[in-house]
Write a structure and sequence with these properties.
Layout: H1 3-18, E1 31-39, E2 44-51, E3 54-67, E4 69-81, E5 87-99, E6 102-114, E7 118-128, E8 135-144, E9 150-158
Length: about 160
C-alpha cells in the first residue's frame, strides 16, 4: 500500500473513532443477546389520575429476567391509557443481576406503546455498578398486555 493510501486509511480510522463508530480502546466487541421476562409479583398502584380524557397510572412492578440479562428488576412504570384502548408507558428500572455473566446493578429507562393485547418498546441502560459499571446497552422488548410475560433483544458492549 502506498504511503498516501496508508495515510488516508489512518485518517479514516481516526475520523471514525472521533465520531464514535469505532469501539474504544479496550472495549469488548458489540454483542447481541436475547431473553425473557415475567412478573415476579402483582403490580402495586402508587398513583392514579385523569387528564384530558386519559387515565394516568403509576405502578411499581417486579420482574424476573432470564437470558443475557439474568436477575430481578423493580420498575416504576407510568402508563397513559387512551380512550381508544391504546397506551404509552415510561419506566425507570432498577436491575440487579448479571449481563453476559458479569454481576452488578443497572439503572435503565424503558419507553413503549401497547393495546389490550400486547406492548412493545425500547430500553436503554443509563448507569451501572460492579462489573456492569462500564456497560453500554440498548434494545427492544415486546410482551403480552394480559400476562406481562415477554421477550427482549439487547445490544451491548463493555468499555473494558
Amino acid at each position: 500500500m502506498s504511503t498516501l493510501g496508508k495515510g488516508a486509511l489512518a485518517l479514516a480510522a481516526a475520523a471514525f473513532a472521533i465520531i464514535g463508530l469505532a469501539p474504544a480502546a479496550g472495549a469488548t466487541a458489540p454483542a447481541t443477546g436475547t431473553g425473557g421476562f415475567a412478573p415476579a409479583a402483582p403490580p402495586v398502584t402508587i398513583s392514579s389520575r385523569s387528564a384530558g380524557g386519559n387515565s394516568i397510572v403509576t405502578q411499581i412492578q417486579k420482574f424476573t429476567d432470564t437470558g443475557v440479562l439474568t436477575g430481578t428488576e423493580t420498575d416504576t412504570v407510568t402508563f397513559t391509557f387512551h380512550r381508544d384502548g391504546t397506551f404509552n408507558l415510561r419506566a425507570e428500572v432498577a436491575f440487579t443481576g448479571t449481563v453476559a455473566g458479569r454481576p452488578g446493578t443497572l439503572s435503565q429507562r424503558f419507553q413503549g406503546t401497547g393495546d389490550t393485547v400486547s406492548f412493545q418498546g425500547h430500553l436503554e441502560t443509563l448507569t451501572g455498578t460492579g462489573a456492569l459499571a462500564d456497560l453500554h446497552g440498548q434494545g427492544t422488548f415486546q410482551g403480552s398486555a394480559t400476562t406481562g410475560v415477554g421477550t427482549y433483544v439487547f445490544h451491548y458492549h463493555f468499555d473494558s
